[in-house]
Design a protein that fits this description.
Number of strands: 17
Number of domains: 2
Bound molecules: NADPH dihydro-nicotinamide-adenine-dinucleotide phosphate
CATH architecture of the largest domain: Alpha-Beta Complex
CATH superfamily of the largest domain: Medium-chain alcohol dehydrogenases, catalytic domain
Structural class: alpha/beta
InterPro entries: ADH-like_C, ADH_N_2, ER, GroES-like_sf, MDR_fam, NAD(P)-bd_dom_sf
EC number: 1.3.1.48
Family: Belongs to the NADP-dependent oxidoreductase L4BD family.
Strand content: 25-35%
Helix content: 25-40%
CATH topology of the largest domain: Quinone Oxidoreductase, Chain A, domain 1
Oligomer: single chain
Number of helices: 9
Organism: Aplysia californica
Protein name: 15-oxoprostaglandin 13-reductase
Distance between the termini: 20 Å
Shape: globular
């Protein structure tokens, strides 16, 4: 198979459950090129792109705390939750060299590697021609999370003029969730995020009616000013004090999509983290639904949901932005940056061209 240079990203140290992850927790190291002959059903892959996801933070702890993903082992190759690669050699009749593939689940942060053909799927030609990274954003887990979260837990009704609020609204999931909420019929759309540039993107390009910069504005006061009628649907990506402020403004019989709680990912807390007693009381008194949403529980709906996402994307109703870091050696840096809001839209690492 030749003997090109190979590299991988290794977990060197753990940040500790209650600390921010650091670039130095990762190291970029040389690794042997996979030179063994491929066994039947194997594919040799050249890595093209990595998906970076906040859920990876729990894998940096000794115990991930969740059932569906394992903790990373110290000294071993880090693996993420998605990516794109090119088949270099194939020992499976369904795949040819040059095919562009994406994993069903895990994807190593490694330049060249061997996988079983049944753990990846070929990207449709139409998608690779537009952009193969669409499978990491709108036409992948992120888009599915936004779409199915809104559909399953949002209770959006056309012509009901509902007010929807989204936190981490300029991130990958949040930006899509807000646009989907609008496309599915909500009346007013408010995004909360961490910079003026992000706020401007939401209101000028994505159709958000209002954006709040939680780092420079008082979320509670601004919500009061822009949503005097109260909040009907809240797509919650962050938890913590931002969510407490939103929940205090929610209406009777309103709905929370409990998607993520990134404000607490660097804290030694169970998931979902506990909420203050007054917020608990508000949820009860106002009959606000707040059920945990996990996209992996809706796999039977992925196919029709991807069809609808494609339709909305082609109609120009879903705009997608990516923040691309170049080079596998910068994957750790990009992950640390994303966890602090360095990204707009989907954070991706381009490994090779
Ligand atoms: P994003 O693209 O949204 O990136 C994370 C963003 O979180 C950052 O850009 C940052 O934006 C924001 N953020 C970071 N720290 C804080 C904080 N302390 N308070 C408020 N905002 C913060 O990532 P994803 O779209 O991939 O994920 C968004 C959420 O969705 C996460 O909570 C993730 O765990 C969850 N998720 C859940 C899934 C499910 O099945 N339930 C599946 C996939 C994702 P800013 O500049 O605005 O602070």
């Amino acid at each position: 198979m030749g003997d090109a240079d190979n590299f991988h990203v290794v977990l060197r140290s753990r940040p500790g459950e209650s600390n921010e992850p650091l670039e130095s927790n990762f190291s970029y190291e040389k690794k042997a090129y996979p030179t063994e002959t491929l066994s039947s059903g194997d594919l040799l892959i050249k890595n093209r792109f990595l998906s970076l996801d906040p859920a990876l933070r729990c894998r940096m702890n000794e115990d991930s705390g969740v059932q569906y993903i394992k903790a990373w082992e110290l000294g071993k190759t880090v693996d993420g939750l998605g990516g794109v690669g090119e088949v270099i050699a194939s020992a499976d009749s369904s795949f040819q060299p040059g095919d562009i593939v994406t994993p069903n689940f895990e994807w190593p942060w490694e330049l060249y590697f061997v996988v079983k053909a049944n753990t990846v799927r070929k990207l449709p030609e139409a998608m690779t021609q537009i952009s193969p990274t669409l499978c990491l954003s709108v036409l992948g887990v992120t888009g599915l999370t936004a779409y199915l979260g809104v559909k399953e837990k949002g209770h959006i009704r056309r012509d009901a003029n509902q007010v929807m609020v989204v936190s981490a609204a300029a991130g990958s999931t949040g930006s899509l969730a807000g646009q989907i909420g609008k496309a599915e019929g909500c009346g007013k759309l408010v995004g909360i995020c961490g910079s003026d540039t992000k706020c401007q993107w939401l209101t000028t390009e994505l159709g958000f009616d209002v954006a709040i910069n939680y780092k420079t504005e008082n979320v509670s006061e601004k919500l009061e000013a822009v949503c005097p009628e109260g909040v009907d649907v809240y797509f919650d990506n962050v938890g913590g004090s931002i969510s407490n402020d939103v929940i205090r403004k929610m209406n009777q019989d309103s709905h929370i999509i409990l998607c993520g709680q990134i404000a607490d990912y660097n804290k030694d807390l169970p998931y979902p983290p506990p909420i203050p007693t007054d917020i608990e009381a508000t949820l009860k008194d106002k009959n606000i639904t707040r059920e945990r949403f996990l996209v992996l529980n809706y796999q039977d709906q992925f196919e029709p949901a991807l069809g609808r996402l494609m339709e909305l994307y082609v109609q120009g109703k879903l705009k997608v932005k990516e923040t691309i870091e170049m080079g596998l050696e910068n994957a750790g840096k990009a992950f640390v940056s994303m966890m602090k809001g360095g990204n707009i839209g989907k954070q991706i690492v381009q490994v090779t061209r």
